[in-house]
Every structure is written in C-alpha cells, then in structure tokens.
TrEMBL record:
SUPFAM superfamilies tied to this protein: Pili subunits
Pfam families, per the entry: N_methyl
Lineage per the UniProt record: Bacteria, Pseudomonadati, Pseudomonadota, Betaproteobacteria, Neisseriales
Domain of life: Bacteria
Keyword Hydrolase carried by entry: no
Protein name per the record: Type II secretion system pseudopilin OxpG
Keyword check for Transferase: no
Keywords assigned: Methylation
InterPro entries the record matches: Bac_GSPG_pilin, N_methyl_site, Pilin-like
C-alpha cells in the first residue's frame, strides 16, 4: 500500500514555477508603484497650485504659508507628498514681490526619480 502525498521533486518543481512567476511579476509591480506615486504627486501639486491661485484671486495676495490654505478652507488638509510620505516636506516658493505674500508656488523635496527627472522642478 502506497502512502498518499507529494514527493520532494514535485514540491521543488512547484516552488521553482512559483519563483519564476514571481520574478516576472515583481519588477512590473514595483515600476507601477513608482508611476502611481508620481501620478499622485502630480495631482497633489495641481490641487495645491490651484488652491494658491484661487486664494490669490479672492484675496489679492498669496498666502503667507501653506497652512493658510487650510485655515481659509481652500484645502481640507495639506496633502501628503507620496514620495517623502510627509505633509511637512513641501517646499514653498515665494513670489518675486514679497509684499504679495509668502507662497507663490509649491515644490516637492523628494530626491530625483530613477529616470533622472528632478521632482523639485515639477
């Protein structure tokens, strides 16, 4: 009478097949993850810049700091930079005429991407 079960060779073959499939899928997953973070960064920059423009249109000056956009209800909260995973890492760019306020534009402080683009120039 033979015992039911798998042999060691069958288990090793199954594990080799799984490892091969994972080695094909993992790079695509991580590339998609990077592209998703970049898409979220673009959207967050667009939303904050739009809120800054609306603030300027309504008040005739730029906000002194990013938190003014939340205090004045132009944003519910400062979005998180998906690359630095922090809402405090945004870099504010002041207008040329400092009498107009303190935040003319906003940039990410994340390091360069794998493709060499600078997130601070977006």
């Amino acid at each position: 009478m033979r015992k039911q079960g798998f042999t060691m060779i069958e288990l090793l073959v199954a594990m080799a097949i799984i490892a091969t499939l994972l080695s094909l899928a993992a790079p695509k997953y991580f590339n998609n993850l990077e592209r998703t973070r970049e898409a979220v960064l673009r959207e967050n920059l667009y939303l904050m810049r739009d809120a800054i423009d609306k603030y300027y249109t309504d008040k005739g000056k730029y906000p002194k700091e990013l938190d003014d956009l939340v205090k004045e209800r132009y944003l519910r909260a400062i979005p998180i930079d998906p690359l630095t995973e922090s809402a405090a890492s945004w870099k504010s760019v002041a207008p040329e005429d400092t009498a107009l306020g303190g935040v003319y534009d906003v940039r990410s402080t994340a390091p360069n991407s794998k493709s060499g683009t600078k997130y601070s120039e977006w």
